[in-house]
Amino acid sequence: MTGIYLDNNATTRVDPEVLAEMLPLFTQDFGNPSSMHGFGAAVGGKIEWARKQVQALLGAAHDSEVVFTSGGTESDNTAILSALEAYPKKKSIVTSVVEHPAVLALCDYLEKKRGYTVHRIAVDGKGDLDIDAYKAALSEDVAIVSIMWANNETGTIFPIEELAVLAKAVGAVFHTDAVQAVGKIPMKLADSAVDMLSLSGHKLHAPKGIGALYVKRGLRFRPMLRGGHQERSRRAGTENAPGIVGLGAAAQLALVHMQDENTRVKALRDKLEAAILEAVPNCFVTGNPANRLPNTANVAFEYIEGEAILLLLNEHGIAASSGSACTSGSLEPSHVMRAMGVPYTAAHGATRFSLSRETTEAEIDRVIAVVPGIIERLRSLSPYWAGAGAAPKAFAPTYA
Questions:
Q1: Could you say which of 236, 326, 368, 388 is catalytic?
Q2: Of 147, 89, 142, 148, which is closest to residue 118 (Cα–Cα)?
Q3: What is the pLDDT of residue 399?
């Protein structure tokens, strides 16, 4: 498939260097790492190499704090369920209204079916967490706090270090879904109050189906998958050795390319946003403009549907998203846009462009050339645009 790919928050292309590290694990180093013979030992050594690469990317104190999983959803579920089992007398959970469905759906289930109290902390128009409400929700009854490091739709970054310290002060376990943040911003978990952190390989140029859960040494932990002794008995099941080695290689490359993410890629993102805002009336960028991931641009176009924008972009060979890939099948505006108070007239037209280190300036120039015509075409067909007089005043975000 060729074209311009700007949906990297949904998934990334496997880096060729990552693939090269993985391929021998399918045909040459194919042993079961739990086996005592040389075939198994060869694979076991590569898994431990990968663990050290993930440790380095996270700035963790010990490689034993890295537990390999199938991805972000399993890591999120494991973290939350572990804390609830480890602290059975505590019956409250604190999270935010803009979390990934991997956290929100589990919290909904725990609230409805198992009687837990879930405090869902609101955000403002920039997507920033209501810190006062967060502090008010903390108590000794809270088993776990689960707050994402960076939002997958807007890129807004939360003050995770501060939130973790506040949670620890009341004796709560602190977990962060860092699926979008890992590899894009520096981390040093060795100096952090974060207890657990989730990451997913396919967001940083590793394959799908592999992820990891950081578990701080000394934390009371209960496994979700029980059976074998793999991962120091914290995650049973024969290891996905090719995926693990791929994740290790991707983590190593992410450290190398992180400065590029925060300079060149960020500059391309800013160029895209500025050009769209100048050429297209009645649109605005969502999220906190001063505190976002360097690769994420979420632009809300008023009075048109995001799905129609995506279809026309696709006709030009451009891939983008109307929100999270896990929720974009819904006809409703994303829960993130609604939580931020974005009006329905704009929330329906929110379009996410997420770049990667593979994005080029020529690709951004092509998107800039195409988007204004698409928006003009769709608005000419929109009864909402015509009904508003074809030149309504654009919604002013609270940070404008």
A1: 326
A2: 142
A3: 43
